[in-house]
Design brief:
With about 110 residues, the chain is mostly helical.
């Protein structure tokens, strides 16, 4: 494992916790659906910058690619939606603990 990879994974963990709290706060001010639209728009803008900076590496929907490999987008939506919804209701520590529990259970399965 590279040190850069380990650091990047740790930063992703911090970003996930910060994102959940920020989304919950934004959701309380502008509503859950509007917060998801804002969040998704920012993610899309950042992704497009990265995509065009690196240049196309192939088609988005390569022939023969199983549909199940595209489920990541749905998973991202579920993560953002559920954390924005539950963070103010059950608290940050419990919400993140349950996310980690779910990740561990999925990894074991």
């Amino acid at each position: 494992m590279s040190e850069t990879g380990l650091l990047f994974a740790a930063v992703a963990g911090v970003a996930g916790s910060v994102q959940a709290a920020a989304n919950a706060g934004l959701s309380a001010r502008i509503g859950l659906a509007a917060a998801l639209v804002v969040n998704t728009t920012i993610v899309l803008a950042g992704t497009l910058v990265l995509y065009f900076a690196r240049g196309p590496r192939g088609p988005f929907f390569a022939e023969g690619t199983p549909w199940s490999l595209y489920v990541g987008g749905l998973c991202g939506f579920v993560i953002i939606l559920s954390l924005a919804f539950v963070f103010p209701r059950i608290g940050g520590a419990v919400a993140i603990a349950l996310v980690v529990l779910g990740q561990g259970a999925a990894a074991l399965a």
